[in-house]
Amino acid sequence: MQIFRNLKPYWKSVIIIALLLVLQAYCDLSLPDYTSKLIDTGIQNYGIENCSPKQIPEKAYKVIDGFMDDDEKAVWKKYYKDGSDGYYYLTEDGEKHIDEVDSACMKGLMMYYYPYQMVNSDEDNEIKAGLDKMGITLDEMPEEMWAQIGEQMKPTVDGMLDSMGEDYMESTAIACTRICYDSFGYDYKAGQMSYLKWAAVKMLGMSLLMAAAAVLIGLVASRVAASVACGLREKVFNKVIAFSDAEINKFSTASLITRSTNDVQQIQMVTVMMLRMVLYAPILSIGGIVKVVGNGAGMGWVIFIGIAAVVILMGTLMVIAMPKFKVMQTLVDRVNLVSREILTGIPVIRAFGREEREEERFDEANKDLTKNTLFVNRVMTFAMPILMFIMYAISILIEWVAAHKIDAGVLQVGSMTAFITYTMLIIMSFLMLSMMSVMLPRASVAADRIQEIIDTDVTVQDAAGAKKLEAPRGVVKYDNVAFAYPGADENVLENISFEAKPGQTTAIIGSTGCGKSTLVQLLPRFYDVTEGSITIDGQDIRDLTMESVRQNIGFVPQKGILFSGTIASNIRFGAPDASDEDVKLAAEISQASDFIEEKEHGYDSAVAQGGGNVSGGQKQRLAIARAIARKPKILIFDDSFSALDFKTDVAVRKALGEHVNDSTVFIVAQRVSTILSADQILVLDEGTIVGKGTHKELLQTCEEYRQIAESQLSPSEIAASLGTDSERQV
């Protein structure tokens, strides 16, 4: 149902595919009928399609007229005219109503000409004995004696009509028509080659039309499936982009990648197969059943045996394989997760000599997936040979039953050939549905996993009626803020209250795990506060659009993340319209201009995915330049100076003070030396603010801060810090 819902926007294409499938099925179902006629009419009946003679001797016409009832005589006389040359001819109007003429003259024609067949046979019979006794032939027999022959033949013909199938009865009547033509030398064989050629042309035309329909179906189905996959990837991507960190952590990056690629590919493949096979199978099977019923061979029970065998086989295989199908996507996730961890952490793995253990870990995940896949494939490998056995067994059964019917004179060879073909088409249609059942479980799991992402409620999103943050000054206020991670029992932050103003630097320091990064991540709404509020210029950020809030924030994460492209494109990442001068100024402030200008292509130098071709310090400086180039009202440095040496750290902060003096700056730091000159320092301990003030004030009033400072600064530096401002050292 999810797949069908995905097809809703493409309903016009689906209708076109359905119409083309009907056309393809019509051609497919017509070919066996043509084959049957080619054998029965073109070969066995010498191209004679109807039992009504086009020309008949006058004597035969009058005798046959005597065998007919009043209704049949009316038709007979209406559509035949006397040629005044000893023959009667079928009129043009009779050609147009040939089925009506056939029905009227079939019985009388057989009663007249079947005795000729009996006389010419090698078997003894009453008619042959009577003629021999009288010493005359059928042609010499007077018309009044034909009445007696008719009385003898009537029970025989009536019995044939009751016991023979319609096709075989018509063939027998046509055989009588040939005797009629042979009696006066009518060259009916001349039309045989014409009939065979025309039948071949029609079969070739049907085949070409069917091939063209199949190609068009494949083309349209592929385009629809590709569009569905494109739409799903877009939905998943847009949803993931809107996720807060809570949703990202819930699914894991590896799982999101698998769902966006492998799972969508499964849906795309099944969509193609559904449009080409699942829609075609019922059309073909229903058409085949209608043709079989109309065939009149009386072997419909064979079809039900074949269908039952296919359904039982595939049902058994699915019961065995279904549980493994459900596990497969989870195992693919596991392989992707392990692969991603190993590839990302190769330097650490090598440094700690863990190659062998990581190889074992990957091998374990890979083998679990391999074992699961092999089990499913081995189970399903039984399907094809057994299905082929069923199909050939059904063919043999049909031939065995049909042989007895042909021998009994109630079935023709061509009808048997057509019945076999129709039966194979019907079984093949059920086989197509059965083979789809192999693919559907995995696609079903994939669809559920994709839908799980799409249906996930985003915890951080714009409120109804959210306003844009326009012309902000950048005054940030935390008012009694508390925060707990989703699913956590305790708050990470408690009672956080402070104010940060433009032109001032607010630094945040504390022990590892005290909530420093969490505190600044609440401002761009990576998470929403659990209690309290955060305001910008007095407006609660939850009442503002996230886009407008984030457009005014320059964020530098702990780990500098770069994107594939050039140095210039990375610096312009947050400000696409930034001029070359702005880019160069941002690089100078972040102290990145020196190493950039040393490169052969300068700012057009390539940056590998993830910034793999630059060092950690260079990556960090480019990340700082990227935030500065945006010219934001609020700048957040989340422990961004840790990868810089002390000299570069000082130079960057000095340049920030000179060029970025109207922004509200937040610095999360581990080093006291980084925040010595901050206008406001917040000291966090276990998620609460235990100290607030300048460096000098905190040394005097906050024991936790003093302990941190004493662990990093020398006694002389601390003493200087406690002196006058003119003695303060950076």
From TrEMBL:
Tell me a GO cellular component.
plasma membrane
Keyword vocabulary terms for this entry = ATP-binding, Cell membrane, Membrane, Nucleotide-binding, Transmembrane, Transmembrane helix, Transport
Where is each ABC transporter domain found? 476-711
The cross-references to SMART domains, in alphabetical order and at most eight, read: AAA
- Put simply, this protein is called ABC transporter
Q: Which InterPro entries match?
A: AAA+_ATPase, ABC1_TM_dom, ABC1_TM_sf, ABC_transporter-like_ATP-bd, ABC_transporter-like_CS, P-loop_NTPase, Type_1_exporter
Entry membrane topology: Multi-pass membrane protein
Positions of transmembrane segments: 203-226, 277-294, 300-321, 379-403, 409-433
Q: Fetch the PANTHER family from UniProt.
A: ATP-BINDING CASSETTE SUB-FAMILY B MEMBER 10, MITOCHONDRIAL (PTHR43394:SF1), ATP-DEPENDENT PERMEASE MDL1, MITOCHONDRIAL (PTHR43394)
Gene Ontology MF term list: ABC-type oligopeptide transporter activity; ATP binding; ATP hydrolysis activity
ABC transmembrane type-1 domain: which residues? 190-442
The cellular location(s) given in this protein's UniProt record come to:
Cell membrane
Q: Which Gene3D superfamilies does the record associate with it? A: ABC transporter type 1, transmembrane domain, P-loop containing nucleotide triphosphate hydrolases
Predominant subcellular localization, coarse grouping: membrane
